[in-house]
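Researcher: Here's the sequence for the chain we discussed earlier.
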Amino acid sequence: MSNDTPTLDRLLPSRDTRTGYLLRVSRPRFWFYLAGPVVVGVAYAADSLTDLFAPIALALFAYFLLPANVFLYGVNDVFDRDVDADNPKKDDREVRYRGDRIVPVAVALTALLGLAFLPVLPLEAGVAMLGFLVLGAEYSAPPLRFKTTPLLDSLSNGLYVLPGVVAYTALSGGLPPTLAIVGAWLWAMAMHTFSAIPDIEPDRAAGIRTTATALGERRTYAYCALVWLLAAVAFGLVHPFLGAVLGFYPLFVAGIVVGGVDVDRAYWWFPVVNTVAGMLLTLAALWVMLYG
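Model: Thanks. This is the structure I predict for it:
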């Protein structure tokens, strides 16, 4: 590999091996986009430190850390094979689907693994798990293929919130506050649409319509800032601290626009930004649990 190869790529097994190939399909930089909500959900549902390490909490974290990412992005890669032929992100940080059987098989197995949780989950948590699997598949797969319909592509990406709903409900026995779910769903919608900005030209070239291709780059920035602002308001109604953490996102978008930061560069900052935001939310929950 050249010295220009991203550090994480150099740490993984070779992309020429099955393990290295599947790990890259699962998007390691984004693993915590699904596992992070589990951590946050568990932290807010827990009544004691022991609850943080309950078997169901650990099992859900393990599932949403890797298998769920193989499922979600594997479906995406299989049904986006033609689109990804011209996507520059596939050249270094990701891999292109090669048409081999290993990805569909891995997708099927990881979906079945998710279904295996249903007998041990409360009803509401089971519905959330099913929602994740259905939205995760239909975002990319026919017949619905939400990703090709403006606004529905954004709305359907609330699926990233559902791991947190599953974990919270599995541990507490009840759903999170409605405004927290609404705020988190809005956050995920904006996060998805922002991540689609670097794909505007490849998607247009492939004839794919998304919220980002419909709005164009500058109006997509405005859309993301507005939706993140609404997310901050919803969280702020749950607790001002939560609203303050989410309030960083519209300011961040404004900084990118005013500073003229290239979106391809800003896109790769978000794994760090989202990890820090999740850490702050989790630490706040632990503080309340320990010190009231």
